Give the backbone structure.
Amino acid sequence: MSTSSANRLTFFATAQLFLSLSLLYGTWVLYIPHIIEKLEMSESQLGITLFFGSMGALLGTFAGKPLVRKIGEGNMSFVSIVFMTFSMIGIFLAPSYFWIIVIFVFWGIGSGLFQIAANSMVTVIEEQRKITIMSSCHAFFSLGALIASGAGTILMILLDDATLHVMIAAALVLILQVGFYKHYIKNRKIKEPFQSAPKSSSKRVGLLVILAVIALIAMVSEGAIADWSGLYLKDVVHLNSNYVGLGYAGFSLAMTLARFVGDYFSKKYGAVQVILRGFIISIIGFVLVLTNMGLVTILGFFIVGIGFSVIVPEAYRLSANIPHIDSASGIAFISGTSYVGFLAGPPLLGFIAESYGLSVSFISLLLLVVLGAALVFLLKFKPSTQLAKS
């Protein structure tokens, strides 16, 4: 097999992991109303369930680093996606509110482990095979969300059976692993000969913190748009209720398409430049959103999606390439921080909306994105690092 063919096979084997995760998560999202009704849960109880899931994810994120070191990135990716698959089945079979909380903790742990393992594996593949695939792998996650919401909705109507639906989704994920696991499971960082640890550098830690805040800003905004774009179009723009979903649909479509070309631009311009331009594009998009003019606002969400598409994948890439900082450690820090942002974004926006109005909430997002762009300048011109050349 030629090197290029082997690289393509390795890429698809790795990318399908991100697709599989999104298929599982997207199936859960489709059936949230069903599960709430089945277990007679209130909205506050759903919030508590999600909170325990997020705590599990943070636990998995912190546990991921030593586990990845012990068994390898490929092995950990396989174990975590299989663990999450059975956890998702458990969520649908949970007989009571108590048990869905317990299972959600396990789902969260698997999610945190997966974030560390899969993203670390991508950086290992990029380093060892001299290819650029981080953004494209995240594109498959976005693609999975579109498949889960589109084809999943059709399947939901045809089957009219939540348990059967999740079993089909789980079977598809497991079949993908059976078909591809041998092409990714052996990927792991080559252990280097023992060397005395270099002196701690505040500059390197500072770079990691800046990258974490950049990822946090992107994920706060992404989570907020996912939960509040429809209401913004309805209550602020006064769009017909039949079309309020177009804002997030355009945002998601743009994220998917742009991530497929993100690696090309990263290789051409460098990760730092790509993040900066992503923020600038997002600022333009938010300005259009705030015009509150129907189609222009929807176009704004689409443009914001283009900008955000590259920020988190490139932050992962850079965090794994800070000199003398272990790649798994860098990714764990970015992953944990950005996940907190994704969870905190929607309620934070809701608090601002309740106090000052939804328009002020989206103005706040714009100002947050401007701050992100400013931080990239600080990152770009940081002296005595290799990041500016990444």
